[in-house]
Amino acid sequence: MHAAEGPAWALALEHSSFADAMRSGVLLYPAVETTHILGFACLLGAILVLDARLLGLGRGLSPALLARLAIPIAAVGLVVAASAGVLLFVTEAAAYVRNPAFLLKQSLILVGLANIAIFHRLLMPTIDTWPIDRPPPRGARVAAGVSAAVWLSVVICGRLIAYV
After folding, report:
1. What 3-state class would DSSP assign to 108?
2. In the chain, where are the structural domains located?
3. Contacts by 116-121 with C-beta closer than 8 Å and gap 24+?
4. Long-range own/partner contacts, residues 123-131 (CB < 8 A, 24 or more apart)
5. What would the pLDDT profile of 60-76 be if each residue is shown by its tens digit?
6. Biggest alpha carbon distance in the chain?
7. Residues of the chain falling short of pLDDT 70
């Protein structure tokens, strides 16, 4: 497929005045890209600390207290990264919808969001009862392993977008 080919909706986004401004501005694209990276840094940093605790590291730290600190930081990071990601997407929408690394990244984000929903629905209600000096329940450890693997893979796929 040629660079100018793609779904009509993607081409319309790519040829919008906002996309033109993003591509032609000296500071706009780098500012949005930096915001995307900072959002992901907050998401990944906070979630990996919590995942490490749920996987059994940091015994002596209350999983409940750590979750109360890490989850809001991760949530803000996710919102910032996703918002900036949408803005970056419009600059080359037709190419992104054909990029296997981008498509895998989006699929992994959906898996990560599903994992978050399952964790919050099934496991968070009992987090205050989890022991401080032992690993949390098996389901929490599984969710943490999935979380760490998925969100790290999202970052890797994001980096690969430029190369495939």
Report:
1. helix
2. 8-163
3. 116/147, 118/143, 119/143, 119/147
4. 124/67, 127/63, 127/64, 127/67, 128/64, 130/63, 130/64
5. 999 999 999 999 999 99
6. 58
7. 1-4
